[in-house]
Write a structure and sequence with these properties.
By secondary structure, the protein is mainly alpha-helical. The protein has one domain. Helix content is 75%, strand content 3%. It has a two-stranded antiparallel sheet with strand order 1-2. It has a two-stranded antiparallel sheet with strand order 3-4. Helix 3 packs across helix 8 and helix 6 packs antiparallel against helix 12. The chain is globular, with a radius of gyration of 24 Å. The relative contact order is 0.19. It is found in: Membrane. Its main location: membrane. Belongs to the drug/metabolite transporter (DMT) superfamily. Plant drug/metabolite exporter (P-DME) (TC 2.A.7.4) family. It comes from Lithospermum erythrorhizon. It is a multi-pass membrane protein.
């Protein structure tokens, strides 16, 4: 669905999008807090996915009971691959990036996902490059700017911006300067790997959804197979029984937030927002998350805000908006071309002799999106 039409719907949509970004912000902060408390990087996503599966599974069964197509071996293999990209790799790289970096670093680099997705779609010939039209140039230049911003964040930290009158709620032990620089770069690389996994998951998921049009069930299967993969990893990497024991209310809260809010409330909000406003409108609010995370991370953890991070984030956000503008422009052009083709088809039918026009119309292609679909009947 396109942009919201009524004022009340638009107001609710804006409020829902703000709530969505607040939920994402809370997830970054809560996950960092969980790692600082010593929760295992392997155990944390496992408990998160167990809780998410317990919530999503019954909901998917109730609401999509009549919409699910029968399972095939091909679909099961695709679910396993989706789980590898969208759960195991995505969540694993996220935890590593958060551990070695900061919530602000994560939120800034994640804005490059649309540009990376565009590059993958072009490589797989799912997206066409148009160097002549302004929308094509906008998407290309936006992608280049995003990549440049991610490169700046990874390779250049710069001096920190300090606010001496604000004290963090949680004090972190000062680390050795060399170790901090190394962690900044390593954290950036892990988050870039997470963004690549995220983009690959979205690109690969698109054709799967067409064959299995039950998004909640698809998410549940992805979560299930991802949980199995994480358990296999844990069998080799996390054999200490003490690491599996939840020993405080704080740990319970972090896991509950990750499972219920990040994998439940956020999914519901995203579905509603995309349905009422469209994916581009939802993506426009993404940079707000970066600002909220930077403020919350500074106030809670005392994480420093570096000039390199600000500069890189500015490039990434600018590139994001260029890509989104180009995509919106492209959709409008395609819709106009489709409307023009159909109008021409109707005019031909009204102006010419019925017998002659029927023959001509049968050979006229109708443009749908970027493909020409012939109406010729053999």
């Amino acid at each position: 669905m396109g942009q919201p039409t009524s004022k009340s719907t638009k107001l609710y949509l804006v409020l829902a999008l703000l709530a969505l970004q607040l939920c994402f912000t809370g997830f970054h902060i809560v996950s960092k807090f969980a790692l600082d408390m010593g929760i295992s990087m392997v155990v944390y996503p496992i408990y998160r996915n167990i809780l998410a599966l317990l919530i999503l599974g019954p909901v998917a069964y109730l609401f999509e009971k009549n919409d699910r197509p029968p399972l095939t071996f091909r679909l099961l293999v695709e679910f396993v691959l989706l789980a590898l990209l969208g759960v195991t790799a995505l969540q694993g790289f996220y935890i590593l990036g958060l551990y070695y970096g900061s919530p602000t670093l994560v939120a800034a680099i994640q804005n490059s996902v649309p540009a990376i997705t565009f590059l993958m779609a072009v490589a797989m010939r799912l997206e066409k490059l148009n160097f002549v039209r302004t929308d094509g140039l906008a998407k290309i230049s936006g992608t280049v700017v995003c990549v440049g911003g991610a490169t700046i964040i990874t390779l250049y930290r710069g001096p920190s911006l300090k606010l001496p009158f604000i004290q963090p709620l949680i004090s972190n032990t000062e680390a050795d300067e060399t170790e901090t620089v190394q962690n900044w770069t390593l954290g950036s690389l892990y988050i870039l790997a997470q963004c690549v996994s995220w983009s690959a998951w979205m690109v690969f998921q698109a054709p799967v959804v067409k064959r299995y049009p039950a998004p909640l069930s698809l998410t549940s299967f992805t979560c299930f197979f991802g949980l199995i993969q994480l358990l296999v990893i844990a069998a080799f990497c996390e054999r200490e029984l003490d690491h599996w024991i939840i020993s405080s209310y704080e740990e319970i809260f972090t896991i509950a937030y990750a499972g219920i809010v990040a994998s439940g409330v956020i999914i519901a909000l995203q579905i509603w927002c995309i349905h009422n406003g469209g994916p581009v409108y939802v993506a426009v609010f993404q940079p707000l998350q970066t600002v909220l995370v930077a403020i919350a991370s500074y106030l809670i953890f005392g994480d420093q805000i570096y000039t390199g991070g600000i500069l890189g984030a500015a490039f990434i956000i600018a590139g994001l908006y260029l890509v989104l503008w180009g995509k919106t422009k492209e959709l409008k052009v395609e819709a106009r071309n489709t409307e023009g083709s159909l109008t021409t088809h109707l005019l031909q039918g009204n102006s010419e002799d019925r017998g002659t026009s029927a023959t001509a119309a049968a050979a006229t292609p109708v443009t749908v999106g970027s493909a020409a679909v012939g109406t010729d009947i053999p």
